[in-house]
Task: structure prediction
Amino acid sequence: MSGIFSFASELERLHAAGDLRCLQPLEHDGPYVWHGGRKMLNLSSNDYLGLAAERELREEFLAGLSADNLLMSASSSRLLSGDFPVCGEVERLLAGMYGKEAALVFNSGYHMNVGILPAIAGKDTLVVADKLVHASLIDGIRLSQAAFCRFRHGDMGQLEKILEQSHAKYSRIIVAVESVYSMDGDKAALLQICAMKRRYGNVSVYVDEAHAFGVLGEKGLGLAEEQGCIHDLDYICGTFGKALGSVGGFVACSRVVREYLVNRMRPFIYSTALPPLNWLWTLFLLRRLPGMDARRRHLAALSAALRGALQAAGFPSLSGTHIVPLLAGGSNASIRWAEVLQRRGFYVLPVRPPTVPEGTARLRFSLTAGMHMENVNSLVRNILEARDGL
Ligand SMILES: *Cc1c(COP(=O)(O)O)cnc(C)c1O
Result:
């Protein structure tokens, strides 16, 4: 049998290890979902501001639509006939919000990360990435011609050593990090990274704000706004699919980088643009984003309450944000935790290798501003009761 690959036996192996993934069809009902006849609080969504779940916003948006502007397909790439006026409107608004020269929007955050690095990094480039960056960044680095190394998660000392040892060997170095890490919920030390960058003439910084855009900063621009270093970052990326409640990815950058990407970035060039309908919805929400501070503050209060209660109960705390992991250890333990909490009305899923390192399988609670403090209090009570039964 050895040497003969079989899909079925590979799936068997995943199943035995507790690492098999399956799709779960759900009905959505505001901050709740229905699954198997049970209504559960949705703790697995990235709708951090509760915008995607909110019916009133959709009603307001719909009132401005008619058969004239409700276009469901761009019918081509931006470079052919898919560059509708609304595209430029969204990009100018974004660039203005960041105070950057330009912005460029992509079909998704995944397109953004698999496309930008291969376009901007060549054989003369070293990409230095945090050990925990998202799979899409890793894929982008692999598709590029660049040399690649990683530093231990959040280890600024190791990053500094790498820059010291490598800056003379490469004509360019790109440091690639996330701002809020999707699985630990912790924040990057962007200011420290920017300070290191200033020591060398050939280092630029690429930051993926997927989990912070909309949520952090006074205007919701992300961790770069919160830490006050927007102008030191060369590529500020984000997704519209999480807190903004829409779809698409973006980079805020210089005018020349934008033009370079339009000419060199394959997922931008060779894929049909997002439908105008989606661009209109993004524009509708982006205009309101700076004014959504009350939602951001409510989310911060919910998050602090959950983190504080788990820490007080003796769980190790990694997070400083609205993404709160509960470490279970093994994959099968994380599955048991998820099953128990689902039975108690909380839709939470196990996150297992290879998404997280071996031995750190976990539940990942993702809070949204659509929840009430009572939801969080009840979650905590149920976690503590469940722990006694596990
Ligand atoms: C979700 C995510 C992406 C992908 O964004 P999509 O718009 O969902 O494709 C990219 N980077 C990070 C860090 C993410 O968490």
